[in-house]
Design brief:
Distance between the termini: 53 Å
Shape: globular
Strand order of the largest sheet: 3-2-1-4-7-9-8-12-13-10
Largest sheet: 10 strands, mixed
Number of strands: 21
Strand content: 15-25%
Number of helices: 15
Structural class: alpha/beta
Radius of gyration: 25 Å
Helix content: 25-40%
């Protein structure tokens, strides 16, 4: 879509045509286009159909009420901040007393809209003519044009003097897809950090996979998840440290203390209930497979350690058998005293920044609920599998706060390099999902298949962490059948390839 095509969409004819396509079926698009071209120019019909598709996709990020009033570009819709996350971040800035923000690399304006809805004046800058025009149209469509000035310019030439804070969202995609080197962002992360420090109060949106050693000195690093899905990381500058040095803080339950204002208020785009539900893993048998097979070997799967990458799960009988605790379906085993994991990384590793007193945060939406640490990383105990297994939220794992969750649960890691926490008691926590474990077995497909057949398990959720076995391969081989459900974890326990079997459970 060209800027000229977009301008035509903003005419009365273009708006009426776009509104008529709100509920159109993309599968019938050819027939719809043929019919509409009898009464409208072909280029306008093409632009309207493309915009209608983008609006339908954007509902998941912005909610239907806003998405069907907003305008998008294909790249802008994909890269825009989810509205619930933007509202949370705007709330943090408002709580700092910020009344004006220079939004650099504003894209289609999602963050600018969230800021303006809190009464914050925004200068929104983007160098792409079409993107800037879309951002301007969105401010007008949502009645926020008086608070949002959109400027088409190179952000590196913009004078941000006179604004209380700066927000920078560098482009992290190029012609070949995602960009993983922060210095290849546009603009580079080093420029963004320099600009943020000069501004005093600032936030830089970055990819959640950024290594901790890349976090600049003096910055607070925050990882944010929405309904269990990690969405982004943010580098904060000029924010006071709310926690005593070396301590992790978080409320027992409910929204984060002092940050209730960061929650999206009623009527704001992207309320916490608008995001997709968290994928529970791979299902097989009676349940259709509608999502990703499992958690893969992403670096976020591991706690912050200096250990080698996750190994390969072996065959039955390989490695050391895990302890089991003598519950039903398992023979008794001695409970070895917990050891300590090497959660502190070696010199130059992920702890190189945290050890200098940096603040790290994991924030979970809806809520918000925030777990913080100020100071060096702590070690988590490692010990045998207990009755319950806790799967930390992805933001907790990314922020290297698994040890803090283990401490709150009175728990321990099942392996020094695996981000699963185990405990003997069921304790409610927003920072992890709990499972009751019935069996801990050495890895073996024949043994698993026999157990599932005996228990008539047909709905099988497969999760893996520290295993090379693919869930699809596992499902084909075990062929679950029956009315019952179970979750199997393919992982390591004390270094041994293992299978943990259980089911989700909620604390009273």
């Amino acid at each position: 879509m060209t800027p000229e095509d977009f301008a035509d969409l903003l005419t009365p004819e273009g708006r009426a045509l776009l509104d008529s396509l709100r509920d159109h079926d993309p599968a019938q698009e050819l027939a719809v286009a043929t019919r509409l071209r009898r009464d409208h120019p072909a280029h306008l019909v093409s632009a309207a159909l493309g915009q209608a598709r983008l609006r339908q996709r954007a509902v998941a990020k912005f909610g239907a009420e806003d998405a069907f009033r907003m305008y998008f570009t294909p790249g802008g819709a994909e890269m825009a901040t989810r509205a619930a996350v933007a509202a949370y971040r705007a709330g943090r800035l408002a709580a700092l007393g910020v009344r004006s923000v220079a939004d650099l690399c504003c894209g289609i304006g999602g963050d600018a809209l969230a800021l303006a809805r809190l009464g914050i004046r925004v200068l929104a800058v983007d160098r792409d003519p079409l993107t800037a025009a879309v951002a301007r149209a969105n401010a007008e469509a949502l009645g926020l044009a008086e608070l949002i000035e959109v400027r088409e310019a190179d952000v590196t030439t913009v004078d941000t003097t006179g604004y209380d804070a700066v927000f920078i969202d560098p482009a992290r995609r190029g012609g070949r897809g995602r960009i993983f080197d922060p210095e290849s962002y546009s603009p580079p992360l080093s420029w963004a950090v320099e600009t943020a420090r000069a501004a005093g109060t600032a936030a830089i949106k970055i990819a959640p996979g950024i290594p901790h050693e890349a976090v600049p000195a003096g910055a607070e690093a925050e990882w944010i998840s929405d309904h269990g899905d990690v969405k982004e990381a943010v580098l904060w500058f000029g924010t006071p440290d709310p926690a005593p040095a070396g301590r992790a803080t978080a409320p027992a339950d409910g929204p984060t203390t002092g940050e209730a204002a960061a929650a999206a208020p009623d009527g704001v785009a992207g309320r916490a209930d608008s995001g997709p539900a968290r994928d529970a893993g791979a299902t097989a048998g009676a349940a259709p497979d509608t999502g990703p097979a499992t958690e893969t070997g992403d670096p976020a799967d591991r706690p912050a350690t200096g250990a080698a990458p996750d190994g390969v799960a072996g065959s039955a009988g390989s490695g050391r058998s895990p302890g089991n605790g003598g519950r039903a379906g398992r023979g008794p085993a001695p409970q070895a005293a917990p050891t300590r994991s090497g959660l502190a990384s070696p010199a130059g590793g992920p702890d190189a920044v945290a050890g200098r007193g940096a603040v790290v945060r994991a924030t979970l939406l809806p809520g918000p609920r925030t777990l913080r640490r100020s100071g060096p990383m702590v070690e988590a105990p490692v010990g045998p599998v207990g009755r319950y297994l806790y799967e930390p939220d992805g933001a907790v794992i990314r922020a290297h706060l698994v040890a803090e969750v283990a401490e709150r649960l009175g728990g321990r890691l099942i392996d020094p390099t695996i981000a699963y926490v185990t405990a003997d008691e069921l304790i409610a926590t927003p920072y992890a999902t709990a499972y009751e474990i019935t069996d801990v077995l050495p890895f073996g497909l024949k043994k698993l298949k026999a157990l599932l057949r005996e228990r008539e398990v047909g709905i099988l959720t497969v999760k893996k962490r520290g295993s090379a076995i693919e869930p699809e391969e596992l499902r084909k081989k075990v062929k679950p059948q029956g009315p019952h459900a179970a979750t199997v974890f393919l992982t390591r326990v004390a270094g041994a390839p293992s299978m943990l079997i259980g089911s989700p459970v909620s604390a009273p």
